[in-house]
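Example for tutorial group B:
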């Protein structure tokens, strides 16, 4: 990105084209947000916040990283701890789902894989190989109900928590 900014050949801060600078910065998939300040007479300050890596996903037989900025990032980074998304969700759908997980009692770090179905329903595989089946609606409530079973010492041998039916949990 720095190289692309240098290619703009900014000679005079007064003739600075802010939209071209924004275009260069926004084209970088690693940028979450940014701000550009003109500091007269001759300085330009750009503050950039990097995006967070959230998950890996296969798109057209290529593995990408999903950033918290909603962009797909080339998988050139060491990221073995990221959950893998199976299925074809829109990135916005995934980000909404991730937000619900963050608002629930579950920790996103407990997740190994995410499964998205064409019906827009999610399943979650946890690091301990427990599969959590969620409904399309009431996701946060289902996560919180399942969390109670997940942490109950009387249910240590659980391999499946089915929370697809409202106010009902089935365990195997």
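The residue assignment follows.
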């Amino acid at each position: 990105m720095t190289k692309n900014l240098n290619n703009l050949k900014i000679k005079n801060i007064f003739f600075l084209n802010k939209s071209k600078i924004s275009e260069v910065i926004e084209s970088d998939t690693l940028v979450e947000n940014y701000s550009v300040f003109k500091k007269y007479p001759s300085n330009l300050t750009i503050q950039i916040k990097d995006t967070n890596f959230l998950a890996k996903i296969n798109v057209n037989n290529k593995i990408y990283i999903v950033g918290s900025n909603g962009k797909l990032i080339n998988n050139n980074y060491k990221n073995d701890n990221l959950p893998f998304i199976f299925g074809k969700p829109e990135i916005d759908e995934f980000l909404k789902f991730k937000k619900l997980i963050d608002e629930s009692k579950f920790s996103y770090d407990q997740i190994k894989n995410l499964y998205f179905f064409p019906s827009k329903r999610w399943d979650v595989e946890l690091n301990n190989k427990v599969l959590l089946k969620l409904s399309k609606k009431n996701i946060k409530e289902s996560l919180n109900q399942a969390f109670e079973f997940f942490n109950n010492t009387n249910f240590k041998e659980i391999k499946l928590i089915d929370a697809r039916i409202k106010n009902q949990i089935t365990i195997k």
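DSSP finds four helices and eleven strands in the chain. Compare this with the pattern of hydrophobic and polar residues in the output above.
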